[in-house]
Specification:
single chain, alpha/beta, about 300 residues, 7 helices, three-stranded antiparallel beta sheet, eight-stranded mixed beta sheet
Length: about 300
């Protein structure tokens, strides 16, 4: 378990939370080995974490996997791996823990035994606030009802994923159900046919696309509707401000708390320093920072 700088991962007392990765690695949203081009977990697995991941031979076995295929998988640092000893880290004082940010805990290509071990550890440690996030919402109903300490979310980047997330989140029971629009890649028509006030959504997170500069230059061509931004040290690809406003306004209408990540700050020049000679500056603002266009920057948590 490690402290995290992911802003929305908070301990129950409001302080910055932790990540834990009993699973690492991914086979992509469709399970075909094609990864999201902006995936930071893939980048880290093939970078500074490569040797430590390759040292773990506890890879996901599948029916009819040949010996040669297993050897091939073991040579891929981002192939799914299990770290069962990390489940013991849950036996601590109360924390907010984002589980499997370096994998997808709910993916159908993970062995069922691994996922059962994770859910058992969550149930044995009700003192924690557990953040679960998946790109595979169709798998959520098999785990419902979720333990009472679980925040259960779905990653959404486009309108198709949004409608799919709503369908499956509505089919489960969890203390908090949320949607993470990160990275937001296109406008999402929230007011039709489905708005937050018509669905059981308790929290919304919105973020921009982040990554290494070289990767973002390439991704800017792939996603021409996103605007490159630079804050003096970090580059991002920003969604259209109106896309964000549509989500925020729909959430406000439904009284759903909204968490705007720091990487969206280029959309808020009103919140940056006024000096033209100073470079743009990222900073952690108050929970609500009023703007003049009827909606505001905020980092709200569900109660």
């Amino acid at each position: 378990m490690n402290p995290t700088t992911i802003e929305w991962v908070r301990n129950p007392d409001g302080s910055q939370g932790f990540t834990s990765n009993p699973f690492t690695g991914c086979l992509g949203p469709k399970g075909d080995g094609i990864h999201c081009p902006y995936c930071y977990a893939n980048r880290l697995a093939n970078g500074r974490l490569r040797q430590s991941y390759l040292a773990n031979e506890n890879v996901a076995d599948h029916e009819f996997m040949t010996y040669s295929r297993r050897i091939e998988c073991m040579a891929d640092p981002f192939y799914p791996r299990f770290w069962p000893e990390r489940l013991k880290d849950f036996v601590t004082a109360p924390k907010g823990i984002f589980v499997c940010n370096m994998s997808d805990w709910c993916a159908p290509w993970l062995p069922m035994a691994w996922k059962k071990a994770l859910m058992a550890a969550i149930r044995r440690n009700p003192q924690h606030r557990i953040y679960l996030l998946t790109h595979q919402p169709q798998e959520l109903p098999r785990w419902s009802p979720f333990p009472g300490n679980s925040f259960v979310g779905v990653t959404v980047t486009n309108k198709t994923e949004y409608l799919r997330a709503l369908a499956y989140l509505n089919a489960i029971e969890a203390r908090v159900k949320y949607i993470s629009f990160e990275p937001l890649l296109e406008p999402i028509p929230l007011l039709f046919p489905c708005a937050f006030d018509q669905n059981d959504i308790d929290w919304v997170i919105i973020g921009a696309m982040t990554g290494r500069n070289a990767d973002l230059f390439r991704l800017a061509r792939q996603y021409p509707d996103l605007a490159p931004a630079f804050d003096g040290k970090t580059r991002t690809l920003q969604p259209n401000r109106n896309w964000v406003a549509d989500i925020v306004n729909a959430a406000d209408k439904a009284q759903v708390p909204v968490f705007l990540k720091d990487n969206l700050m280029p959309l808020f020049p009103e919140a940056l320093r006024d000096s033209e000679s100073a470079p743009p500056l990222f900073f952690t603002p108050p929970s609500r920072l009023s703007l003049t266009n009827g909606w505001d920057y905020r980092q709200e948590m569900p109660e």
